[in-house]
Amino acid sequence: xxxxxxxxxxxxxxxxxxxxxxxxxxxxxxxxxxxxxxxxxxxxxxxxxxxxxxxxxxxxxxxxxxxxxxxxxxxxxxxxxxxxxxxxxxxxxxxxxxxxxxxxxxxxxxxxxxxxxxxxxxxxxxxxxxxxxxxxxxxxxxxxxxxxxxxxxxxxxxxxxxxxxxxxxxxxxxxxxxxxxxxxxxxxxxxxxxxxxxxxxxxxxxxxxxxxxxxxxxxxxxxxxxxxxxxxxxxxxxxxxxxxxxxxxxxxxxxxxxxxxxxxxxxxxxxxxxxxxxxxxxxxxxxxxxxxxxxxxxxxxxxxxxxxxxxxxxxxxxxxx
Length: 321
Ligand code: GDP
Ligand code: ZN
Hints:
Layout: H1 5-28, E1 39-48, E2 51-56, E3 61-66, E4 78-83, E5 88-94, E6 100-103, E7 106-110, E8 114-120, H2 127-139, E9 144-149, H3 157-169, E10 174-176, H4 185-191, E11 196-200, H5 207-214, H6 218-228, E12 240-243, E13 249-252, H7 254-257, H8 266-271, H9 297-303, H10 309-318
Parallel strand pairs: 3-5, 8-9, 8-11, 9-10, 11-13
Antiparallel strand pairs: 1-2, 1-4, 2-3, 4-5, 6-7, 12-13
Guanosine-5'-diphosphate (GDP) is lined by residues 149-150, 152-153, 178-180, 203-209, 257.
């Protein structure tokens, strides 16, 4: 849908008014700030209550409060802030987010480049669980790839690779690792360069072990941040952004590692199977559920081999057919 010139003009006018109002609101509290201090952009490392730990481009950390008219930011957010003291500042603007990870409406992290679903040979991967994670990621517009860990425990690695070929054919990257035996770890680390990553997955699959490989002094850093934020041990449960020494960032917390999946609607499930997309809207019936309707484009695609039949089977299972 394209807007008429008049509609565009109206929208621009409304936005200009909003910005003017926001500026007025922030001017009212301007006396809090030293006029000489310059605004700079920073990266939110963690949030604790109403306070933020913000990393300046120089790498220095500032404890910040947010202006009241500003949406609460989370790890991964880019903000504009002004310093008011040696290591204190005020966040005056939240920059536009590329994406978000949320659970039960609560925003957990922002500006994530890559989610990694970690599964393992032991406890043995389950397709239904994998599909549920993928559906959540697709619906949130978050790129997701798969790590299969503990590959050394498999007596039939070819079978494992075959099992995941349906995900590869749907366009997901799959990495087969053994953190224990360091198999493929170097290549994997190299993939993480210059991006912000989150590791998700069932407990026991090796997420903590993998993260410890990436950031061996993680516990030490958590303690340092606790000291900096003057909050003691509370910070250990907060979602935090860490720089990976070999490149890239990790956004992590115990809550993220144990990220529980919300219930999925049928609509979310359908839009969560990314390779179905080209066929949606092509069925004979507009309200086709793609189960046993005649002239269903999805089923035809399965018959023609354009959609992997196992993925279609998993789809049916997820919607409870
Ligand atoms: P998390 O719950 O996903 O964080 O998993 P952990 O990192 O705590 O790992 C669970 C268990 O799996 C621990 O006993 C690890 O030592 C073990 N583990 C991690 N990676 C591997 C691996 O590649 N092979 C084997 N055999 N065990 C592993
Ligand atoms: Zn259909």
